[in-house]
């Protein structure tokens, strides 16, 4: 019985991770294929394309922030799981933890510099340095500390929503141009990513002329991004640690518990996200509102929708329904780091100038078809790879560096 529980527990975590990894591409593919602001503002690129707004709306409600939230939750849970495993194997937990996350920071830095500036691995590695010192806290403390940190972007955006009304003209113009870039800026961005790799690398190293300026609008937005990324990430990680300690992540609660998570999470979260979407339309995607106050409803919604997803996937893993799909998602989840980097490599080939050069040429409906093709490739590739090997290639490199010895990879 114990062995079965353990197997189910690992399966549910891996299925959740695989589900989140594939879902994350649904949002990231916008940043791979279009100027970055199109991720947030559907009115700036191909606004008249077929189903542009319906697809944006669906992804905004069900995907934006949600899959990164699941990843962060599982990252916190996995941190405790790895520390527990190191104790059983008589390995120095502090040495392993900091070694693993030092190399994660390096991998994230290289990924962000060489391939895609939207990397989150660096942020995760930095957040993990703090997690070690909180690992022995009680679940209630971890949960409320995580909730506090997760909600810090809400407090920031509330303050900024008032301050932005009192900005000087140059700061207001910068925010408006950032949110709705002039045509020549969009054209310059498209030419850059349809062009030479070295120019793209220089852009990641040096940035663009439009990116840096000395005014309050730029400073408020930049600080807001830092507060948002780190607050959401480490907040959900701490909540994930608490959920793991209480057996919520790990399939150790009664089925009714997960059913309530699913029903309440979606029943509260989806209307909140829809409310945020409605207010965007009410304010006609105006810059000052959209950049600050407009982000708040979806931020709250993320916490509930993540809860719903965790409850639904965990319940599903207790059934034999579509077991082949569960196993396929688990394979993707076991190779999450490899698949995350592979998404960048594949998308880079499809959209950037050193490959097919489709950057800025593909609308949201067409992106869905490309996303489905990448999903299929990663699912099939992960299943086949794990029949022969224990780890994904990037996981193997990470593990070997972390332990200071070449890890066994072949089965």
TrEMBL record:
The entry's keywords: Membrane, Transmembrane, Transmembrane helix
Parts of the chain that traverse the membrane: 15-38, 58-83, 103-134, 140-165, 256-280, 300-317, 337-355, 367-390
Matches recorded under InterPro entries: Bact_Transport_Assoc, DUF418
Top-level taxonomic group: Bacteria
Keyword presence, S-adenosyl-L-methionine: no
Positions of the DUF418 domain: 252-404
Matches recorded under PANTHER family: INNER MEMBRANE PROTEIN
Full protein name: DUF418 domain-containing protein
Source organism of the structure: Paraglaciecola arctica BSs20135
